[in-house]
Design a protein that fits this description.
heterodimer, A: mainly alpha, 9 helices, globular, B: mainly alpha, two-stranded antiparallel ribbon
Chain lengths: ~180, ~290
């Protein structure tokens, strides 16, 4: 069943849709939580975060837009992971890459702004398929540089340098278009 | 206001990348997630399902693991440098084990990698004669648990020694800071009893811990230090352990409070995942200390 159909059913508070979403998305969300927490959360903690993502989704179905189920879930997963990392230990260092920071609410506004989304998709086209995959692995799946290097059969420095160049390229791209970054 | 990465909000063509090799085995159990969900959101109570217990190596291994780290901490906290009698140690471990819940055990298990398990097993075999491969449940005696706790502690010391000494050999600390076997937290005397290092909480030892921490933090940003992800995890655990041990001492002695807080802040700022992207004010921190 497509995400759109699932989202439609979810908006009607269809429990079986929720069950299906949990089946489909738990491995994906788990990967994100696991990679983001980098060993800072126990399996039980991660399961709690995962459940919390679904609880938030269930309680906020009215805010859900049918085409955006996946990105909505990812957004919740990331923010819940950060909250959990902060909660479990004051000693935990949370390494949110200081790439392109903007104010929290502005980010959400920008995300909802379709012009920006179009620009962002264009920005990604600046990169080769290989580079895009590295960006996605790094920023979406929170894989570490050594892991990406191993998967891609590259050395770590090369991966780091690709990410560094990508950051700078994206930053200039958005600045040129008048975004405050 | 909290700042977030702009990518957190982006919807892009990740759909194209939802290949199996992006999804990793994390140990998260979908049934457990569902149970937690239904418990909290409760769209339908009937869907609550039994949870499979997640003891990774069975109850015995869980007890051993529990005794390992928490027992070590408890012993360190309670000995204050005095000789530990085996009976007291045993009592501490049993009390500790009772207090542990599944969550704690899962956390402890997670910290022990297969490689670490093998290294500890090797120590158990070489130094204490346990045949770990052919252990039966009846072999897991209180004495075995005590021995395991200390084998783990010794292994921890070895990892710590290797990291610190490597940093010092690279010139990030004075040679006098090199860790030797005598610096190990515990030793086993000729009667087979374990004793805590009597200088454990001395002013000199505390200062050494701090300076060693600085040495490693500085080396950490040097590409030549070449530490793996596993080393990084061990390093964080080791330094957290140092911090906890030292903090315990600080609470008791009310000494070094500021110094140790600074040391910990340094660890927190320095030992981060993907350190390659951070420029850290290590020199400033070191100058403040000196």
């Amino acid at each position: 069943m497509s995400d759109e159909e699932l989202a439609r059913r979810l908006k009607k508070h269809d429990e079986s849709a929720m069950e299906e979403i949990m089946e489909v998305y738990t491995p994906y969300i788990s990967t994100i939580i696991n990679n983001m927490s980098k060993g800072g959360l126990t399996i039980s903690d991660m399961e709690e975060v995962c459940a919390d993502v679904f609880i938030t989704l269930w309680k906020n179905t009215e805010k859900l837009r049918e085409q955006e189920l996946k990105s909505y879930i990812i957004g919740i997963a990331k923010s819940r992971t950060i909250d959990k990392l902060r909660a479990v230990s004051s000693k935990q260092t949370i390494d949110i890459e200081d790439i392109i920071y903007i104010e929290d609410n502005t980010a959400e506004d920008m995300y909802k702004n379709s012009d920006f989304r179009i620009d962002f998709e264009q920005a990604l086209q600046m990169f080769s398929e290989d580079d895009r995959e590295i960006i996605v692995r790094y920023y979406y799946y929170y894989q570490t540089v050594p892991k990406i290097a191993a998967i891609k059969g590259m050395n770590k420095e090369a991966v780091k340098s690709k990410i560094r160049r990508a950051k700078s390229k994206l930053e200039s791209f958005f600045r040129e278009r008048g975004y405050k970054i | 206001m909290m700042k977030r990465n702009i990518f957190d909000y982006m919807e892009t063509d990740t759909q194209n990348y939802d290949k199996d090799n992006f999804i990793e085995e994390t140990g998260i159990n979908t049934e457990n997630v569902k149970k937690l969900f239904y418990k909290a959101a409760a769209p339908s109570a009937k869907k609550v399902r039994p949870v499979r217990r997640r003891f990774m190596y069975g109850l015995a291994a869980a007890l051993i693991s529990a005794a390992t780290i928490v027992g070590t901490m408890a012993v360190v906290a309670q000995t204050n440098g005095e000789i530990v009698e085996p009976k007291e140690t045993q009592k501490t471990e049993q009390n500790t084990i009772k207090k542990l819940d599944d969550k704690k055990i899962a956390e402890l298990n997670k910290k022990i990698s297969m490689e670490d398990e093998q290294a500890i097993s090797k120590l158990m075999y070489e130094e204490l004669g346990y045949d770990m491969k052919n252990m039966k449940s009846s072999d897991i005696t209180p004495q075995y648990e005590i021995d395991y706790v200390f084998a783990k502690a010794k292994y921890g010391n070895i990892v710590y020694r290797d990291l610190v000494n490597k940093a010092i050999e690279m010139g990030y600390g004075d040679k006098s800071l090199m860790v030797t076997d005598e610096d190990f937290d515990y030793v086993r005397n000729e009667n087979g009893e374990y004793t805590a290092n009597k200088d454990f909480y001395s002013d000199e030892t505390l200062k050494k811990y701090y300076l060693r921490t600085i040495a490693c933090c500085k080396a950490y940003n040097d590409p030549e230090f070449h530490i793996t992800d596993e080393d990084r995890l061990r390093m964080i655990n080791m330094f957290n352990k140092d911090y906890q041990n030292i903090y315990q001492a600080v609470n008791e002695s009310e000494k070094y409070n500021d110094t140790m807080i600074k040391a910990y802040e340094l660890i927190e700022k320095t030992i981060v995942p993907e350190s390659g992207y951070r420029e850290l004010p290590l020199d400033n921190a070191t100058k403040e200390e000196s």
